[in-house]
Amino acid sequence: MSVLMIDSHIDIPWEEKTEEGLPCWQKRDQADIALREAERRFTIPKAEAGGLGAACLAAYTPQAALDDAGHEAAWRRAGAMLEAMEEMVALHVSGRAALCRTARDVRQAAEAGKVALVPVMENGYPLADDPARIGHLARRYGVRYMTLTHNGHNLLADSAVVRQGPEEAHGGLSALGREVIGEMNRHGVLVDVSHASRKTMMQAVETSTVPVFASHSCVRALCDHPRNLDDGQLDALKVSGGLIQITAMGPFLRRGGGGTLKDFVGHVLYVARRIGIEHVGISSDFDGGGGIEGWQDASETHHLLKALEQTGLDASEIRALCGGNMLRLLEKAEEKTLECQT
């Protein structure tokens, strides 16, 4: 079966914080993206070996202090990581991969036999209190989605996982967060509710004029973890036209960890049966903690396809959840951008 497999969330290796506890902005050499034998779980040769046709590469920023120093470091880090993606492709894999800004770009890269790479952002923290930064990220780097939060509240919204401080800071979205979502809608940047608190997620569904999605989360009914979405949230995603991209993170698949490819497929099927095959997709969170028995790195992506084929899903359903649904959502965001320009 010919399927365009799209992994909606992969990190790039990077030092997390400086000695001062600020997000690290010093560039990390990305030459190993071209190697088959590399410590990182996603490389272009591994993707080629596993039949992974496209990946969303995340410029991830760890949450730090909500002050000028923290916000400045976060903004510098985001720019450095997005620039590193550009340099990585140009210097090391120019004939084998392509940076893509649109769904059409992804399809064209796949048709040309290249791995499509879509730049995205994990954590809205680098925006500080400036919604206009969304436009810059979209125009300059082609960023196509952004998680509102990571592990910890920021100025935009409350997070599902709080390492320190109060359980809530805003009761969901802040007024600034709602303004940022409006900018995201205008510039074709999808609203990603992975890492967001339940209130934040539900309010984002109501606020966004484009369907929202969760780029790397699982089903709370099957694994009671705060990073997962409960049935009410899944139902809200269906109403909005959005997606949940089931992720290969063991503790999200099975309480206590140890999740396997069988568990992963079980989460996919749960979503498909509850809200429809058009509302579910796949992600690995490789190089960000992801990797499970049966899908340890990008070279094993064909194991996932085989497991899905054994479920009884037909070819059109498999093509939808493996990539078609994600492309449709990108196109929805692109259509909204065109509306805003007229």
UniProtKB/TrEMBL annotation:
GO molecular function annotations of the record: metallodipeptidase activity
Pfam families from the UniProt entry: Peptidase_M19
GO BP: proteolysis
Organism: Bombella intestini
CDD domains: rDP_like (cd01301)
Cross-referenced SUPFAM superfamilies: Metallo-dependent hydrolases
Name of the molecule in the record: Diguanylate cyclase
Source species, domain of life: Bacteria
